[in-house]
Amino acid sequence: MLLYALARPLAQTLAATNSSVTDLFDPTTGKCVDIDGCRTVSDIVYSCLSVVLICTWVAIHPNVPEVGKHPAVVLYDDFQLMVVALLAPELVIVWAMRQWFSAKKIAEKYKKYGWGMQHAFLVLMGGLTLYDGEKFCGYLWEGRDENDELHEKYWNQITKHHRKVREALGRHEVDGKEEGEKDEGHVDDQPTSDQTHLLSNPDSQLPASSEDHGPEPSESCLLEYLIANGYITITEDDIQDSISHGDILSKSIAVVQTTWFLLQVIARAVEGIAITELEIVTVGFALLNFGTYFLWWNKPLRVRRPVRVYWRQSEWKEKSESTESTNGQTGHGAIFKGISALAQYLVGSDDEVDSAVELFFLAMFIPLLVLIWFFAACWAVLLGDPDTGQKTAGSRHKVLFSTRLKEEPMRLSVALFIIASLFGAIHCIPWEFQFPTHTEKLLWRVSALAITAGPSAMIIMLMFVGAFGASKWLQMASIVLALLPSILYVVGRIILIVLALTALRDLAPSAYQTVEWTTFIPHIG
Predict the structure, then answer these.
(1) Which of 74, 98, 274, 496 could form a disulfide with 65 if both were Cys (CB 3.0 to 4.6 A apart)?
(2) Smallest Cα–Cα separation from 285: which of 8, 29, 44, 60?
């Protein structure tokens, strides 16, 4: 109905509109003579950019940055996500859908421990990490197969430590303030940080009897064992108040602003007032934004550091001096370190760049590497979890696009097909709009068709890859063929955005007219 309302000709209304436009503008100079009934190009750009900013920054809920990742690399990852959301917004909602399906499964499984969707999303985004004092052990993912390395290395140590704490409590019946018990896990003067939680308090969190023990090793992953035995006690209020940088009010304001923009565009279509190409592009963002907000409504927003799960507290006072010295860098040293870390990240090297000459040559290739990594990021989101098979804590992209969805439901693929087609169809609305030149109109039509058909072609190719995955040559050929429509799609998106901006130089007179909201409100006279 929205597409019909925006695209259909309104002959009867146009006649009335033409007379009102004549009253608003000077026939000789073409300038607006009624400031209350007109808007400027800057007004159009501002309203559209504000919605695009919401869709590409505010609505995006990135996963937690990897432990030890340099702030410059984290900033680059945020920029990369923003570019992906700008050029391929369908991929963001696909990512959100996968995480939502996965979070539903986790929340259902851990409901007996009082967990909800916020807990599930926190796990999916790499928000729970296991620590031995100040030593980072690894990420706590859901599922035994996701934790094989961590499980094998620490399971025996943690269970043995847990039994010793319980035996000590049973023998002494004290409140955990003795020095010996502090070494076993209870610390009252723990570090004060909104990202660091004491999750191993033997006084109040550990089960009181052997019957209340968590699941047996054969039937549990490490995450479930730590939850069941009181090592993880974080509540939804803790997540909302101390970890997430967004609340219901801020999200609601963004939704209201997006809704207001859509209402204005619909009202312009109903009144027969011209709609700009930039507004049509923004409508596509806004509609996808509602889906993203719904799917990520319970996901913590922009968590910068994961929650630390301490299974043994005795070493927390041993602060790393190297970390302090790194954080203390200022000026040129910090800038050099940041560029060096970003170059390392893009090149994929673990060797530290310590020469200005070496850094200069690496920096020359950064634009090309950024372009390659953009397509790699889009491909990673499209294929699903790119890192399921990588268990090492330092592996790249372990957390950036994590969804932990092993089996993709058929309804998700169908939803992706429908969303991609509708998003492309929105850009076909200006098929008969006024453009400054015929060439620009032709470019718009070709690009709109490319972004409408491109995602469908990619989905068909990916389904073909899944059906004939046994043949490596056939799989490689299908991937190469799927890359072609993806490249055409990105080029088409860029052309549409550029054309939407250049079209502002020659707008129809009614495009400057504002909506008369009184016509939509029942009144007398």
Answers:
(1) 74
(2) 60
Question: How many other C-beta atoms lie within 10 A of the C-beta of residue 393?
Answer: 17
Query: Burial letters for 101-135: b for 16+ Cβ neighbours within 10 Å, e otherwise?
Result: bbbeebbeebeeeebbbbbbbbbbbbbbbbbbeee
Buried b (16+ CB within 10 A) or exposed e, 178-215: eeebeebbbbeebeeeeebbbbbbbeebbeeeeeebbe
Q: pLDDT, tens digit, for every residue of 230-285?
A: 899 999 999 988 888 877 888 888 889 899 999 999 999 999 999 999 999 999 99
Closest CA to 234 of 183, 296, 303: 303
> Which helix (DSSP H) or strand (DSSP E) does residue 308 occupy?
strand 307-312
Which of the four pLDDT bands, split at 50, 70 and 90, describes residue 221? confident
Question: What is the rounded CA–CA span in Å between residue 302 and residue 245?
Answer: 6
Reported for 55-58, long-range contacts at CB under 8 A and 24+ positions apart, including other chains, are: 55/85, 55/89, 55/258, 55/285, 55/286, 55/288, 55/289, 55/292, 56/82, 56/85, 56/86, 56/89, 56/285, 57/82, 57/85, 58/250, 58/254
Average pLDDT, the chain: 75
Residue 347's pLDDT is what? 60
Domain boundaries, given as residue ranges, for the chain? 2-9+37-58+247-297+409-517, 59-246+300-317+375-407, 331-364
